[in-house]
Here is the input.
Amino acid sequence: DGGITQSPKYLFRKEGQNVTLSCEQNLNHDAMYWYRQDPGQGLRLIYYSQIVNDFQKGDIAEGYSVSREKKESFPLTVTSAQKNPTAFYLCASSIAGNTEAFFGQGTRLTVV
Amino acid sequence: QQPVQSPQAVILREGEDAVINCSSSKALYSVHWYRQKHGEAPVFLMILLKGGEQKGHEKISASFNEKKQQSSLYLTASQLSYSGTYFCGTEWNTGNQFYFGTGTSLTVIP
Here is the structure.
C-alpha cells in the first residue's frame, strides 16, 4: 500500500540532545513538508523540499535541519538550538503544488 | 504568513450548520481544506483553485474568493462525525510553500 510513514510515534529525549525524526513515502511524490503542531497554533511550516537535494526554510526553521538525499525520504533533525522542541511533528508529501497533501501519523516529541 | 481562520472554536448540535473562514494576507493560487481528528493525521477534504470556484463534498462545501483572498467552508446538517479540527491550506504560487491556517475546532453534540 502506498503511503507516508513517520517513525517513531512517540519520542523522549533529554534536553540538549539532537534527535532525528524519520519520514518515508512510497507515493513517488516530489514535494515533502515538515510541520510542527502546538495547541491553538495550527500547523506551522518548518521546512519543505520540492526536489531531491534541495529544500527551503519555512516560518520556524530555526533549531531544525533537514536533508533530502532520496526522493522517498525527508528526515528532520531537532537540534539542541531549538528552544522549545516538545511538540507534535507532522510530515506530508504531495505530487507537486496544487495537489492534495498526504500526511504521516505524526511523531510526538517530548524533551525532558 | 500563516492564514488566519475564524472562528477558533465552535460547538454545534447535530443538524445545525456552520461556516469556517480562512483569510490570507497574500494573493492565493489555491486553497485546500483538511479535517483532523484528535491525535490523528489531517485528512484531505477538497481543493479549490483560483477562479472563484465552489466545490461540494456531500454536506460539506467550500468557496474561494481570490479577490478577497478568502475561502469559506460550509458544513450543513452537521453530524457527530464532523467533529474535529479543520484547517485551510494555502498556496501562493503553484509549487511554492504550502501553509496551513490556525485551525478551527468544531464539536458536534447530540
